[in-house]
Design a protein that fits this description.
The complex is a heterodimer of chains A (about 160) and B (about 325). Chain A has about 160 residues and is α+β, with helices and mostly antiparallel strands. Chain A is built from 4 helices and 4 strands; from the N terminus they run αββααβαβ. In chain A, a hairpin with a 4-residue loop joins strand 1 and strand 2. Chain B has 2 domains: about 130 residues, no CATH class; about 130 residues, no CATH class. The chains are: A alpha+beta (about 160), B mainly alpha (about 325). At the A-B interface, helix 1, strand 1, helix 2, helix 3 and helix 4 of A face helix 2, helix 4, helix 5, helix 6 and helix 7 of B.
């Protein structure tokens, strides 16, 4: 390989890596990124949506990202926010899909952590993140959608 | 006469930059980077396979293509996603071994770019993958298989006219550019207020709140740091110093080593505060272009040889 080719490859790749600086900082891409993670100013007050499992005796369970069809927390977060933004039918569709995965888990293993979950709720919560972590203070919660976990395929 | 002097004055720093960029390096150093980065890519792809297949089953409504995936109007069938991912693992193995490099290396880079961009096309861009993909692309365009390959009995290749040092500098420059961009993004989005520690406290709190509500694991130091935010201003300053100071690592030597340890420490801190893992830098692979990587990567082979020699002497 000659020096000219090496120079073109070098300038091209370093230039491409740095090029996102010319875009809006929150205009992310892959693999050429502005790397905006943890850069956007955040208030401690957070409004976000998430899914909850409710047991027969009314206890509330945190569900795992696997129930959303992904192993990643942030991808689960994005999936829920997107469904919530799309309206009632999308919320219900997501709720039903989660319920089906919970039912499948329970059918696979009767001692699964979510085996006693009978209802799924998509919830909008408003929390103070600092208070929640430092003092365990839970904010306000409102239910967007709820659906039953299908019982026919569930182990009891 | 004046114009000539002006051109000569301009050419001087350019030739100094060129001398630095093209400073000679042994082919083993670039080969060591191929093995380390390629080996990491193989393991990373294998570890991500179940997730790649799992997101391919998500409804088309949540498909949000990024990068090269924008050429698709709709998600691919799951079997196609899985086949590309598995083929990419095979190509990356050949890439790492230096087998058929001129063909397998570009194909491996394309496969890795495609598969990881597909993974990021469901509403969440995974910043853990960017640097790995850029490094594999850079290696695929470099003469990185002129040493330490498994091509037994193949005739030794003549060294390329441009040498090997430029490709190592390129990998190091890409690492530094990524960190520099992260620092610039903080300044552009939050300004100097990012430095007072309050922003970092909120980032830690919000990120861990999401984990708590979405079934993830809260980071071990999160509750402590949020309750005792006094030291977070120092952490903010250090973070910004490491990110904006990344280009200094290109000076090499002690600068590069200090920066690499600082950046590694920053990632370890992110794990403790947010439980956010960047395995590529945490494994140290992202920083290998900044050191004489052949000593570290070649160590297992040297140990194996010396063990054999000791055994032969004992006999």
């Amino acid at each position: 390989m000659g020096r000219w080719v090496a120079t073109i490859v070098s300038i091209g790749l370093v230039g491409a890596t740095l090029a996102p600086v010319l875009r809006a900082p929150d205009d992310d891409g892959f693999p050429l990124s502005t790397f905006p993670m943890f850069a956007t100013p955040r208030p401690a007050q957070v409004a976000m949506s998430y899914a909850r499992g409710v047991t027969r005796d009314g206890r509330v369970r945190v569900l795992s990202p696997d129930h959303l069809g992904t192993g990643e927390v942030l991808q689960a977060f994005a999936l829920i926010q997107r469904a919530v933004d799309r309206g009632e039918s999308a919320r219900l569709a997501l709720c039903t899909a989660i319920a089906a995965r919970v039912a499948a888990d329970a059918a696979d293993a009767a001692d699964a952590a979510d085996a006693d979950v009978v209802e799924i709720r998509l919830v909008a919560g408003m929390h103070d993140a600092v208070d929640y972590l430092a003092h365990g203070a839970v904010g306000r919660e409102v239910t967007w959608a709820s659906c039953d976990v299908p019982r026919s395929s569930r182990s009891r | 006469m004046g114009e000539l002097r002006c051109a000569a004055e301009l050419a001087q720093p350019m030739s100094r930059v060129a001398r630095w960029w093209f400073a000679p390096a042994p082919p083993e150093r670039l080969a060591a980077l191929r093995i380390a980065i390629g080996g990491f890519a193989v393991l990373w792809m294998i570890a991500r396979l179940p997730e790649v297949v799992s997101v391919a089953r998500l409804p088309a409504a949540v498909f949000a293509p990024v990068g090269v995936i924008r050429v698709l109007g709709a998600p691919l069938p799951m079997i196609a996603v899985a086949a590309i991912a598995v083929a990419t693992v095979g190509l990356l193995v050949a890439f790492t071994a230096g087998l058929g490099y001129r063909v397998t290396a570009p194909l491996a880079a394309i496969g890795l770019l495609w598969t990881l961009a597909y993974r990021s096309s469901w509403g969440m861009v995974f910043h853990t993958d960017n640097l790995l993909v850029l490094h594999v692309i850079a290696l695929a365009l470099a003469p990185a298989a002129d040493a330490w390959t498994i091509r037994r009995g193949a005739p030794a290749r003549a060294a390329p006219a441009a040498g090997y040092g430029w490709a190592i500098k390129l990998l190091a420059a890409i690492t530094c550019a990524a960190y520099l961009l992260a620092g610039i993004a903080k300044l552009r989005l939050a300004g100097l207020s990012w430095l007072d520690g309050g922003q970092l406290r909120n980032q830690i709190a919000v990120d861990n709140l999401r984990k708590a509500l979405l079934g993830g694991t809260v980071a071990p130091l999160a509750r402590f740091l949020v309750s005792h935010p006094d030291g977070l201003a120092v952490c903010s300053l250090l973070t910004m110093g490491i990110e904006l100071g990344a280009p200094l690592a290109l000076l090499g030597g002690r600068f590069a080593r200090i920066w690499a340890w600082g950046a590694w420490g920053f990632h370890a801190g992110v794990v403790l505060a947010m439980n956010v893992w960047f395995p590529y830098p945490l494994a140290g692979v992202a920083f290998l272009p900044l050191i004489e990587a052949e000593h570290l990567v070649g160590w297992p082979a040297r140990w194996w040889r010396s063990r054999g020699m000791r055994a032969a002497r004992a006999r």
